[in-house]
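Honest question from a wet-lab person: if I give you the sequences of every part of a complex, can you actually get the arrangement of the whole thing, not just the pieces? Trying it with mine:
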Amino acid sequence: MPRPLRWALAIGLAGLLIVGGALLLPFSDWFPGGTVAGISKQEVVNGTAFNRLFPAPAAGEDLVFSQEKRGFSEARLKRDGAVVALLAISDTSTAPEARAKFESASEAIAGWPLVEQGPQASALLVADRFQVKVIGQGSGLDPQRRHALLGAFDLPRIAALEPSRQSRTKPRGQLAEQLGEALPAAPPATLQPQPELQPAA
Amino acid sequence: MSRSVLERLERLPRRDLTVLALKGISTLVPGGWSNPTSADQMISEVIGSQDPQLIRQVRIRADQLSGARAEGYGRALSLYDAVNRSQHATGGLRLLANVTAGLPLLKRISGITPPGDTLQAVDLSLKVGAELLAFTQVNGLPGDSFADFGAALADYAGEARVRMAALICFDGLLPLGDQALQRLDGLLGAAGSGDLHKLPAYGRMAALIPGRGDAAHMSFLRRGVDQWLGWAGGFVGQLGLSGQKAVAALEGSIGPWQGRFDQLAAFLDAFTDTYAHTGVQAVARRLVERAAAEI
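Yes, you can. This is the full assembly:
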């Protein structure tokens, strides 16, 4: 192979690599490993939306927000400077396995299934999607107090939360999107939360 | 493939110079420090249960979260690593300068090493800035208002008291003297962007610091330090920290020291990883708290 041809080939290959890399850069979030469970960020409800749905602290207690990510928000309930409990709301779309434990739930708060995880954690699944959890810290909390805290979250508004973009993999969401495109005036009825249709137990 | 946060936690040393230095400093801080290096124990503390199945679930979730690039846990750890490497490099240079200053033929080496105080102040501000950036990478911007964010930051600093005490003592009080916090603002005002470039960590952090150009980065660092100084001043006053007390506490765990304070600081910078060590532990704790709430 003549030398100029070799050079042209090498430069061409390097150029292709750079151009290809630059073209793919905006899609880095979609590559495997970029996001949790490979689900696009837009399909997960942002933690900002959860913040105002936490219970108001009782007298003598403090609620300090500690983490806020996509699909997750957590706050600490403090009394006299000591952490009494972790309160969290998370979107289970990145952790579908977390929903499995609610299938055998025998208790309910406000119609949503309730399970206990060990001696210090109580979890509630709202609208089959959002997990609300109270974990006792330090000396711990008794179950009644944890359940009262779970009930104090703004559960109806949690149930009404929507991600900024519906999942493309779910047939229900796809159908609603097609319906929405065909009939822009009609509200996508299938997407509305229907707590009264949820099993009470 | 890089290691997950919990793997890094379990690979932390249980007994070496870093741990001894931190043990020494922790005697100054109420509540003490236990060098958590077991992921399972940390998980069971958070969920308040010894159930192996629950612990396994939390661990799987934590590994999944720390493997996701967009979640920022890996980025926080690489920030800590960058600062740590930079600390080793500058500490080694300062130590070399100290050693060679006494030898006639090698005196020139001390001339090429950057002069102490300004660079030390920039180094401290870079560490505080890295702390702030790592906090937002790990915790996001918690709460709806700036007051919420401030409360979250103060809460985090309270939780990482030994970490903060080590930062204040090793990078402030020992090299810069007892008036370190009061002098810091003036020293940073005198520092130019050239000083920033002398620190190896800056090159790696530059992309993550908001703003474009060295001047913007410097002003971000100064604002971050201003925020932190208010808190740190109260912390120092509350615990009555001073260089003397820090040396006494360190002598209790490491052994007697007869040199100057800034030589001790250079020695610790060169041979310990206190910043990255406690950083991994702090990130792991937050990660476990999240994973426990998501399983």
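Two things worth pointing out. Residues 110 and 151 of chain A are 7 Å apart (CA to CA). Confidence is low (pLDDT under 50) at residues 169-201 of chain A.
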